[in-house]
Amino acid sequence: MRISRPVRVGVQLLVSGGLIAYLLWRIDVGETADLIAASSPGYLLAALALFVGTTWGMSWRWQALLASKGIHEPLGWLTKLYFVSYAASQILPTAIGGDAVRIVEHARRRPDARAEAAAAVLMERVIGAVGTLLVVALGIAIAAGRYEDVRYVAWVEGILLVGTLVFLALVFSRRTGRHLQERVFPLGRRLRIERPVASLYRAMHEYRDRPSVLLLVLAVTIVTQLGRVVGIWFCGEAVGIDVSPLVYFVLGPLLFLVQMAPFTINGLGVREAFFVAFLARFDVPNDAAFAAGVLYYAALLATSLPGGFILLWRSVRPAAPRPTG
């Protein structure tokens, strides 16, 4: 049964509102407001600089995936589109909304390579998930023997790792590919989705023959993820949370996954609840943890501002012509 958009949005608002109401009940609102007001501007600016700066790294990995397919796009254009996707993610549900904007915008620019445009974004998302899991594994390895409370993370890591490996097997296995194209994809013929789905699958499967590019993109992903984890640490430092940076190397990657939860509006409520629940295991007061979550969200919103300005500028100037090469 398909759920209508108004019902889905209503459920998301209800869940987000319920979580925020519960958190506000758990914290001292006045104390939290004081912590946010007294937060260190230096740490906040450093966090924002990291979030903005790592966007170029994400754009570069997207450019590398496209270039491996013979599609050469300027890094500046891809970076601008990345910022636009951030702005869209504040309106559309979860980060998937931003990815959809990138796919649609690039398909308009390259109508003869729509499958490749979509495959590059999806492959970037998959490699991002792999990079996140590797960073989590690194955090667990570093924290082993130091923090007993992070043991449960290993179970979450194992489940997500198995799911990722299954997905990669479906995408890269030649035997699976033949089965999908011969038996599964034809089922979509009546819905007229057989050809686009098959084209997208082939475009993703072709990355099997580009292992050096995938490894390079994975390395860049890990660097950018670590940079953003440091940014989250700065948000905690801004409100005076005194825990080891190692704690954030476990918190950060899990938070990146939590933010994609489809049952809230852009992770609202879930994100803050995760800060409170996770940092409570290290004796961090709820007020400070919630304040750190708010500052992190504020930094994300500030990162999306360039995309908002780009969208505003587009609305008042003519569209640029499509490339012909």
Largest sheet: none
The number of E-state strands comes to 0
Q: Which descriptor suits the 3D outline? A: globular
What class would the helix/strand composition place it in? mainly alpha
The arrangement of helices and strands along the chain is: HHHHHHHHHHHHH
Portion of residues in beta strands equals under 5%
Tell me the Rg in angstroms. 21 Å
Counted by DSSP, the helix tally is: 13
Mean pLDDT: 81
Helix content: over 70%
Weakly predicted, low-confidence segments = none
Determine the N-to-C terminus distance.
44 Å
Describe the structure in brief.
The chain is 76% helix and 0% strand.
Question: Keywords, please?
Answer:
325 residues
What does this structure look like?
This protein is mainly alpha-helical. It has helices at 5-26, 29-37, 41-67, 75-89, 94-109, 114-143, 151-172, 174-184, 194-205, 211-238, 245-258, 270-280, 286-315. The longest helix is centred in the middle third of the chain and has 30 residues, at 114-143. The relative contact order is 0.16.
Question: How would you summarize the topology of this molecule?
Answer:
Elements: H1 5-26, H2 29-37, H3 41-67, H4 75-89, H5 94-109, H6 114-143, H7 151-172, H8 174-184, H9 194-205, H10 211-238, H11 245-258, H12 270-280, H13 286-315
